[in-house]
Queue: 2 jobs
Job 1
Amino acid sequence: GGPGSGRPVSPNKAIYVLTDGIKFTRSDAELYCMRGALMMNTDHFQDAMNDFNQVIKIADKNKDKIFLADAYMNKALVESKIKKAKEAEADFKLAIENLPQRAAKAKSNV
């Protein structure tokens, strides 16, 4: 499987490829965000939280409100899955503060 082969890439292979990319560019918020989403969707919740926290650090430093909002939204989704409602609510609020239109759509999908 893989790009161009007509077959989907497995989540584990995608995680491996993203991890390899992160080794070379530790400050790429997009790679951490993609890997965090894959971790979340494969029930690796602590790894997902770690990646979203890294995105928050990078995005905050770069003043990138889109990645900041995405990271807080995704982190809130993980927190809601692991029954941390208070933390999820706080992170949804941070997402909304950083990018209202993006966060409102994600919150309505929970």
Job 2
Amino acid sequence: RGNFTPQISSLSMSQTVVDCLHQYHFSQGLESIWQSISQLEKQIDEQKPWTLSGEPLFHFLTSAIDTLIQVAADLDPFLPDTAAAIRHIFSSQPIVPPSPLFPRLPKPLC
């Protein structure tokens, strides 16, 4: 049961993002994507997946990966390189932890 194969090729942009793009409401499309990311972050904070094991962990990770793959599909028109990097992460078997897509900037010394 530990093997998970994401369905990357079958996903396309969410209808919300498509509608925003057709109406040239780019910031609203991006806001929709950030809401998905924020919801996933909230789920991580609340469910604490590092404390889970077995079936609950499998279901949590499957859902999180599905969300991230959808985020990649939605990001494609805005950040195509980042979207491709996310898809690449989840297309490898086993999934290998990547370097950060958006590395943190060092804090200023003063």
